[in-house]
Each structure stands twice: as structure tokens, then as C-alpha cells.
Amino acid sequence: VQLQASGGGLVQAGGSLRLSCAASGSILSINDMGWHRQAPGKERELVADITSGGRINYADSVKGRFTISRDYAKSTVYLQMNDLKPEDTAVFYCNADVRARGKGWDTYSSHYWGQGTLVTVSS
Fold first, then answer.
1. Is 120 exposed, middle or buried (CB count within 10 Å of its CB: 0-12, 13-18, 19+)?
2. Which of 41, 67, 69, 94 is the most exposed place for a label (fewest CB within 10 A)?
3. Neighbours of 116 (CB within 10 A)
4. 92 CB contacts (<8 Å, ≥6 apart)?
């Protein structure tokens, strides 16, 4: 199973970006999908996540500005980021709780991370 994130870049304060993260591999089902971020010198923190049932959770710092969504058929999670601020500058990582097919009839569940995509917001 792999998670491939895309959509980061450089944007001015007040601008917008949309991140995408697609899961691929021998996937049977995906429970939670979400986004974390890690700013320079800081710990990784939750930005937003969405369950298989569509329940959504946001960090207080992004409520009203970021929107997480999910395409279940494409195993893809999105993060629409509006009104970006310099303090949003960070590497954004997608994550997913995946149940996958192993060898033969085996199945397993694991937590996966994407490779990270850099978002830089200039003032």
C-alpha cells in the first residue's frame, strides 16, 4: 500500500491550495484518512481527518479555512486550504488506516503515511 500526496507549493498569504492524496495497492477498505503537518522546529500535528462514515475533525487553527473531503471510489483524500497564513507553512503529510490483502487469503491492517508535500505561505 502506498499513499501519494500532491498539490503543495508556494502561495501568498490569503491564497489557496488544494492537496490530494491517493492510496493504492491491495486495498480492501480504508477507515480514517487525514492530514497532519509539521512546521520547522515543531512537532507533527493533526490538521484534519475524516472517517469512513464521513465524520470530520479539524484542528482549531484551521477551522473555517480548510476543508477535508474524500472520494471513496478513488481512495483519495483532499484538503482545500483557503485564506492561507504564513503560520500554515509546513510539510503536510497524508495518512490512512488501511485494511489490505496479504499473501494468499491473509489480510492485515496498518497505518500508512504519504511522503509529505511542502506548503510555503509568504507574507
1. middle
2. 41
3. 16
4. 5, 8, 19, 35, 36, 37, 47, 79, 116, 117, 118, 119
What does the pLDDT profile of the chain (123 residues) look like in tens digits?
Answer: 999 999 999 999 999 999 999 999 999 999 999 999 999 999 999 999 999 999 999 999 999 999 999 999 999 999 999 999 999 999 999 999 999 998 888 999 999 999 999 999 999
The CA–CA distances, whole Å, from 87 to 12, 48, 62 equal 12, 16, 11
Q: How many CB atoms lie within 10 A of CB 20?
A: 17
Question: Could you identify the residue written with the cell 487469503?
Answer: 105
